[in-house]
Amino acid sequence: MRPRYIPRHFAFAESWGLGAKAMTRWILFGVAAAAFALPGKLIAEDTRDFTILVDGKPQGEYHLTIAKQDDGSFVVQSHAKVRISYLIKTYRYSYRGQETWKDNHLVRFDSSTNDDGKQYEVVAVAQGRQIQVQVNGQSRVVAPDLWISTYWQQPHGQPRHQKIAILDGDTGEVIPSKLHFVGIEQRTVAGQVQNCAHYRVYDGMQADLWYDAQGLLVHEDAIDDGHRVVHELVRVREQ
């Protein structure tokens, strides 16, 4: 997902969105995604619930579940819904995705997005030293060092204006960007003051990201198409 939920084509008289998917499509997606999770045994699970604010107003919700397996892999599931009404127009958006990572490398990514009626089905699978990306049945090969725009995990080290390729989880587009470590800052997260690592993505994707001591996302603040889009963590549920 790019700085999520403000589409490139958004304007006062245009739609912004997603809509409800047909039940059959969601069921098929869920079965396909589950089939490619790594076979490791679950040893820890963390679910994070976010409120999505657009221009300061709550307009949707985002849920992120991070499951650590005993083989060292991570299976990450995320889903979001947004609904915005502008006079006679209502924009609807929905997203559902699953990522599998091992040894800091992407193994597989599946997502299904409905952007106000425009549908995207994305599959990315690691194949040796490349990644095969398929969007609505159209395939291409990309370099293996990708970050996905769910931004769930803190980047390694303290990059300074480092070039990075980001896979837009909505559309499957690979967007060249830059990544910069801003510093350690105190933030109030779900009612508690925490020291958080602040990173900035720019020159392509645009987002400010904050991570907790576990290296997991707690806050995202993005500007897209002139709109401020914020993901604010409201609750963490651990298993």
Task: Looking at this protein, list some descriptive labels.
239 residues; mainly beta; YmcC-like fold; 15-stranded mixed sheet; 1 helix; 15 strands; 5% helix; disordered N terminus
Distance between the termini: 26 Å
Dominant shape: globular
Mean pLDDT across the residues is 83
Radius of gyration: 17 Å
Share in β-strands: over 45%
Structural class: mainly beta
CATH topology: YmcC-like fold
CATH architecture grouping: Beta Barrel
Q: Strands of the largest sheet, in order across it?
A: 8-7-6-5-4-3-2-1-15-14-13-12-11-10-9
Largest sheet: 15 strands, mixed
Our count of domains comes out at: 1
Low-confidence stretches: 1-39
Number of helices: 1
In total, the number of strands is 15
- Measured as a percent range, the helix fraction is under 10%
CATH class: Mainly Beta
Give a written overview of the molecule.
The chain has 239 residues and is mainly beta. 5% of the residues lie in helices and 61% in strands. The protein has a single domain, classed as Beta Barrel (YmcC-like fold). The chain has one helix spanning 23-35, and strands at 42-54, 57-69, 74-86, 89-102, 105-115, 118-127, 130-135, 138-142, 146-148, 162-167, 174-189, 192-202, 207-211, 217-224, 227-238. It has a 15-stranded mixed sheet, with helices on one face. It is globular, with a radius of gyration of 17 Å.
Question: Can you describe this structure in just a few lines?
Answer:
With 239 residues, this protein is mainly β. It is built from one helix and 15 strands.
